Structure formats: structure tokens, C-alpha cells
Amino acid sequence: MSMRLRSEELRVAYAGRPVLHGLDVEIPDGVMTVIVGPNACGKSTLLRTLARMLSPESGRVLVDGRPTGEYGTKELARTLGLLPQSPTAPDGMRVADLVAKGRFPHQSLLRQWSRADEAAVRAAMAAANVTDLAERAVDELSGGQRQRVWLAMALAQETPLLLLDEPTTYLDIAHQLEVLELARRLAREGRTVVCVLHELHLAFRYADHLIVMAQGEIVASGDPREIVTAELVEEVYDLPCQVVTDPLSGTPMILPLVGTPAAGRPTPGSG
Amino acid sequence: MSAIGQGRLVTWRRGHRSVRFSRRSAWVALATCGVVLVLAVVGLMIGDYDVSAGQVLAALGGGGTDPLASYFVTEIRLPRVVAAILVGIALGVAGSLFQMVSGNPLGSPDILGFTTGAATGALIQIIVVGGDTDAVALGALVGGLLTAALVQVLVRPHGLTGTRLVLVGIGVGSTLGAINTLLVAEASLVAAQTAAQWLAGSLNTVLWPRTTMLAVAVAVLSACAVTIARALHLLPLGDDTARAVGVPAQRIRTSAVVIAVAMVSVATAVTGPIAFVALAAPQVARRLAGTPTPGIVGPALTGALLVLGSDLIAQRLLAPTELAVGVVTGALGGIYLIVLLAVDWRKR
Q1: Which alpha helices (H) appear in A61-190, and where do they start and end?
Q2: What radius of gyration, in Å, describes the C-alpha atoms of chain A?
Q3: Contacting residues for A147 by C-beta, under 8 A, at least 6 apart
Q4: Chain A to chain B, count of Cβ pairs less than 8 Å apart?
Q5: Which of A7, A258, B198, B337 is the most exposed place for a label (fewest CB within 10 A)?
């Protein structure tokens, strides 16, 4: 397996407090990698450091074997795209104009709007199913539509590596699935997708490669069908559970014991 | 909220080069240019010695038959008209840069204290040192740049962003305003009079040497502003998104502020503080063009129009007494701001 994106000994600290403790991460090419872990485990920090939004205290991120620190900002943005957590658009901005902003790293003062730009924006809007919204203002849209528009902007960037920071947050289940289907389709088409998710059931279902984090360390990584066990979930989330196989997808699914008689919780009125 | 958008976008391509702009902004820019040209010709015609439009054109072409008319047009009025246009461009662009960096329509050098700082520098020259006009201009330039450096240091730990920049700027500006008042109060009568004249902001005494200097500075700084404009338009999407598409957000902000401060300082050095143009021009331009952000070209032309028009009013309103252009822009700007706020509040 080849790796266009990986990190070596990555250490990151926020205000002197260490968040990542020397991570060696390898992101397999052309598949969908999902990072999960409890709140504050450092999964978003990892994603943002991979995208050079944060600089590590020590260690480095390598894209195509070259440290990201050596890349120019536009140069990196042509290879690696990031959809940040809950991005915002100015009031009244049109969908087509926002998606077109994704072309920035391919443009310059004398090359403001090439035919390639036009084709990329059209393809991105079609892929994210927002072509019909082109003339609408971004702030008029529903949460699900808006997230698809932001994805379209990231797609218009045409980067072989695409990082998504909790792209399903605040979306209902149908819209979450819509976003994940799109992400999976991108991976099937050959892009390398890395996605931070909270929802374990969906993470296990959509991950070709799963990275499980806890307290700034990687606890497990690999095919979710091979690595997800009740012990792992209990260790990482401190949550006793059973792991069963999702009868539809064949991927693991957790059933938390909390809230069931099996948890041994005293029933009301028994005390 | 309706879609403001950028209207119909037009693309021009030639080989690998391409330019993209909105049709409406292009028309607005052309129309503004036209009005500026007309006002410029009017500015060359009127004065204590009236010159006809034909004589103006003849004088500009070097073939005037009336030597006195030619002298007034090319040596007295032309440098003033050109200076008015240049100062307008400088203030309009500076205002736009500040407003795009701070994401706030109040982010103008008047409010952020840079104009006040330039005035402090000039007042120190006039009152304490007793320097000539060149020294005063230099004082204004240094004052403006030092104020910007001070604001930068105070904002530093968190970077140059919106509200913080505005609040720190207001604080610094108020303090410097107090120092300015103190300086004038302690000055001799003559110095206080010179100071008051300078503080009103005027183009009355501008001649070629200073206009030429201004032209070079404005040309260089405008070119710098244009090179970062495209990146600036991405800042309203938030730093993360801007950086994800390859905009070094913090570096672009700093460059924009440096360019804007230099522009305001240069303009103020030549004319004294001209109020409200930097505040109003970008907002007027944005509304005319119907775009979400003001951009560079629109505010430059609108600024030129405002300063040139105000200077004509200042010259002729109480003729033969000439008012300072800053008095007129101040009055117009005040009215504009009240209307803007009233309309904005009614909408809510």
C-alpha cells in the first residue's frame, strides 16, 4: 500500500498542553479513512495538523514524501484540500460564487477564470448535487444543502487528497448519509479521503480504513471489521458494550449496555 | 436575505490569460470615470479667472492662445485636480482594505485612529519643531505609520481581526485625539492657526512637486493592493477556509494593513486629514456595484469622485473665500453616515 500522506513523530501542543504525543500516521491512498475517538482525543487536531492549519512542536507531515512545511500555500492547496468544521459564508453570497472560490489555488492575477476552472466548478456542483442551487444565496439554504455546497467548493479545488473535519455535524441522519455517500464515491473514484466522524455506526460502515484515537494517541487502525471489538470501545470510550455485525452492511455495530437491564442499573423504585 | 451575488460575470480570455469581472461593476466603474473626467474639466475651468472648456483643452494640448489661462490651467489647477483624484484613490482603497480586513464597515482609518496619528505627527512638526510644509508632510507620514505599528503591537497576541482591530483603533485614536487637542492648546497663536488650517484638510496650496510625489506613491501602493485583492476576497469565508484554498490569511491581512496605512499617511501628508472618504467610498462603491465586498477599483474611483466633487464645492460654495475640502467631505460624510444607519435600522 502506498502513502501519499503520512506523518512522522507528530507532536502538537495547545498553549503548552500536549495534544498529540508523537503520532506516526499513514493514510492509505485512494480509500476513505475515518478517524474516530472521544471528545478532546485530538482527532480534529490531527486532521488540522495534516492540513498544515496547525504547526507541530516537533515531527512532520509528509505529502508525496516532502514535508508540508516546504510547500507554498497555493502549491499545497492544489494537492491537499480541507473542509473545516462549520465554515461560514458572508450574507448574500451566491452558491456558484462560493464554489468558484475553490479554484483559488489554480488561479492568478492574469489567469482569473480558465476553461479548466469553469469545468471543475461545473463538475464539482454536479457531483455534490448543488447545480440547481447555483443562483441561491448560501445563507438561505438548509443545513444539508449548505454542507453539500461547501463540499462542492472543496471538490472544485480538485485535490487528490481531501480532508473533512466532522462534515456531518448538525445534520439529520438522511443528510449525514448523503454526505458520506458522496465522500465514499470520491474515494471510489480514486481520491484519498480522510474524515473525522463522531457517529460510530456510520464511521464503521463507511471507513475503508479506521483510525481510533484516545488521549492524543492512536489506539488502533485498520479495517473496521478486523479491529473493532467490545474491549476496544470500552477502553477508548469507557463504555461497556456489545459488538454485533450490521446485518445490512456486514460492518461492526456497537450496542451500548448503558440504559438496558444488562447494565445492571437499579430499576426505578427498587432502591 | 436576497441574493446579492456578483451579478452577471463576464470572462475575457486570450491564450492562457483570463480576466473575470461583473458586468455591473464594469459599467459602474466606467460611469464613475466619466463623471470624474467631467468634474476634472470643470475644476480646470472655474476659479477667479474663468477659462472656457476649449481653452482648457488647448492649454492641456500645449497650444493655448491665452498665456494667463494656460498658466492657471496647467500650473495651478491641474496639479490640484490631479491631487484631488489621487488623494481620493488613496483614501478609497485604504478604506476598502481596512474594511475587508476587519470585516466591518466601520473599519476605516478615520475611526481606527491612523488619521489622528498622522495629524499628531504633523502637529508636532508645526507646533513643537516649527518645520516647513515638507517637514509637516513627513511628520504626518511618520505619525500614521507609528500609530499603525502601535495598534499592531496592541492587537498582536490575537492577530489582526475584525472587532478587536476596531476597538483597539478607537482607543488609540481617542488618546491621540486628546494629545492633538493638548498640542494645539499649548501652541502659540500663529502655530495654532497653521495647525487649524492643516487639520481642516485642504488642497488649496497643492502644486506640481507634491502632486508628482503623490502620483508615484499612489501608483505603487495601488499596484500592491491589486495583487492581494483576490486573496482578500477569501478572508470573509474565515481563516480556515481561506488557508485551505491557499491564502496565507494572516500574511495577507498584515500586507493589506501596511498598504492601507501607507496610503492614508501619504494622502494625509499632502493635504491634511480629509474626513469620511475612506469610510464612505467603499460602502458607496459596494452598493453601486451590488457586490458582497467592496473590492479595489470601485472604491478608488468613488473616492476620487468624492474628493474631487467636494473640492469643487469647497472652492465655489462661498467664493471668493475657499473652504477646506475636509470641511465639505466631513459634512457630506456625516449626512451619509446618518442616512446609512437610518436605512440599515429601518430594514431590521
Answers
A1: 73-79, 95-101, 115-127, 143-156, 173-188
A2: 20
A3: A167, A168, A171, A175, A179
A4: 113
A5: A258
B237 and A90 within 8 Å at the Cβ level: the answer is yes
* DSSP state letter for B5: -
B246 to A76: CB separation less than 8 angstroms, yes or no: yes
Please name the helix (run of DSSP H) or strand (run of DSSP E) that holds residue B10, with its range, or none: strand B9-14
- For chain A, say whether B19 makes contact (Cβ under 8 Å): yes
**Which residue in B has a C-alpha nearest to residue A165's C-alpha?**
B240
DSSP-derived letter for residue B157 is G
First-to-final CA distance of chain B: 11
Written as one string, the DSSP assignment of B94-153 is HHHHHHHHHT-TT--HHHHTHHHHHHHHHHIIIIII---HHHHHHHHHHHHHHHHHHHHH
pTM comes to: 0.86
- pLDDT of B76-131, one tens digit each? 899 999 999 999 999 999 999 998 888 778 778 888 888 899 999 999 998 888 87
**What average pLDDT does chain A have?**
92
Measured CA to CA, the distance from residue A252 to residue A228 in angstroms comes to 7
Q: How many CB atoms lie within 10 A of CB B161?
A: 18
C-alpha cell, A67: 514535508
Instruction: Give tens-digit pLDDT for B23-64.
Output: 898 999 999 999 999 999 999 998 878 888 888 888 888 877
**Can you list the positions of beta strands (E) in chain A?**
5-14, 17-23, 26-27, 32-36, 58-63, 66-67, 80-83, 161-165, 192-196, 209-214, 217-222, 241-245, 252-256
**What's the half-sphere exposure (Cβ side, CA atoms, 13 Å) at A61?**
23
What gap in Å lies between CA A74 and CA B243, rounded to an integer?
9
| Domain annotation for chain A: domains and CATH numbers | 1-79+160-222 (3.40.50.300), 89-158 (no CATH)
Q: Span A233-252, mean pLDDT? A: 94
**Block residue for cell numbers 481617542:** B174
